[in-house]
Amino acid sequence: MASQEIKLYNGVLENAARVLLCLDAFHPRRLSLEQTRIVDYFAAYGEDVGFETSLQERVAWRGQVFAIRKTLVSEALEFLLAAGQIEGNDEKGYRSVEESCMSIGISQYLDELFNVCCHMSEEAEKLGMNAFFNDRKADIESRIDVALEGPPDDPGFHRYERRLRKDIDRMEGLETTAYLFKRLAPEKHVSRHPGLAADWLAAVQSAADAEATKCSWTISQLRTMRSHPGEEDVNS
Question: For residues 35 and 231, which has the higher predicted lDDT (pLDDT)?
């Protein structure tokens, strides 16, 4: 498969692993597509739901991400249905199959996502599902119309380096996720989905490894730039 067809960031594989964690945390309850989208959204903004940390910066306009991820979550659900990791439909809602917790322990990034989702599941149990999701949706809607902001100044490149380190962990998680789905496909005979073909999954593994290496190299360059400001790397 052509390399340009491999999408790592917010690609179907990463989103499938993320949505699977959302549904795993709420198992055996079913979540509608809308509820799944809400959990998926807040998984990255844990502090918005009372968790101790957030994986992504809580910028004022973050509510706009909710609309952007609608198609991504829908595609992830289709992928997981084909992989035999979830069951259901738009009418009945979706839930993970009992043995589906395959993404847990892959990486610190995905583990933190799962921890936030578990926290949300506990809060929903306390407040009631309807009340919990109504409150969360209102929170999202309060941020949708906030104007976009430009990137903050970061003369020391520290913010950029932190993001790259997080991306490295994401890539390691994707590589392992691809491996797990590759093993799953022939066992459950679900390789009809193009994203479950062995060659596609192998290409994802290779691309993730290459991306992690590139991020590591960039971090080393940033360190050099901070140590020797104003100097250029003649070998670059």
Answer: 35
